[in-house]
Amino acid sequence: AVGVGEIMKSSEQEQECNDDISFYVGKTLSSDKKVLALNKLWIPMPGYNFPKTGKRNLKFQYIWLLHVGKGNHQVLGKLVFEKFDNWKKALGVKGFFKTHEATEYHKTCQYKYDTFFAVKNNQVESVEVQVNNNLKKEIQENRNRIIPIIKTVLFCGKRGIALRGHRDEGMIDIEDDKMHNDGHFRQLLRFRVDAGDKDLENHLMTCAKNGMYTSWRIQNEILTTCNILILQHLVKNINAAKSFTILSDETSDISKKEQLTLCIRYVNSGKKKLREDFLQFVEVKNMSGKALADTILQNLQSLGIETKYIVGQGYDGAAAMSGMFNGTQSHIRKKYPMALY
Predict the structure, then answer these.
(1) Which residues form a coiled coil (predicted)?
(2) Of the candidates 101, 120, 139, which is a domain's last residue?
């Protein structure tokens, strides 16, 4: 006995391999099923009895001519919407086959057929791939435009060179080498162009006024991004060491704002090297020992540093920091007894 499951499976397989082209009319087909439908065409046996009219049994061979079994009883068109069985008018210069072959819709179908298989056989790229490639090209061109600008910001940052001058705004005239000061950053961009940076030259020559990527806002965004990446790298190394010492000092900046300089001393486990790395400046409002301790711990935790690994503290001799009973070091030791001062 044959099970219901086997019957359904057999039916599905029959549908998958159906060679009657009318079976696929009005259906959405995957790429593989289109290949199956177009390749597995119905080929009649030599003795097949074609529908015919009249007394002459004429048969013709056209690569695009198919006989539809399923639709034979339907009122279709002449090769499209109606059936065609007027064989006397099939051939000749004005025959229906020649006329049909010259129609635009037939040529369109033939073109789509050829293009589909060309894409399938990797002879040409699909529209999706071409659009994707154009997008990749545009992305790469934009990267080529911004990379010289980023490198110039990094060059200044690594050497402590101020970026902006008196007039760090507006378009950059790459041929303007006047003595007026428009900042190290803009002068370095001109220097790169003069040294042969074609990507930067093309960008500065063709970009819109609001698309130069050289404004102070863009410079600050680049610096902020660099700060995030550097901190992520440092935090990873500090946590990997599994022990570190806090180094901090309170001071006032040029605008009279009170701030903490926050540094970490640790052993780089990869290079086996003792390091002291600056993390950041932290503005403080309350200068009491407890407030400073809370500020230090909160900032370490916000950076992702695991404070359970604190084994030491290093500050100056100010009472707010070093006080035995109410200083910053004593409040941190209450939470982390291993954090010796």
Answers:
(1) none
(2) 120
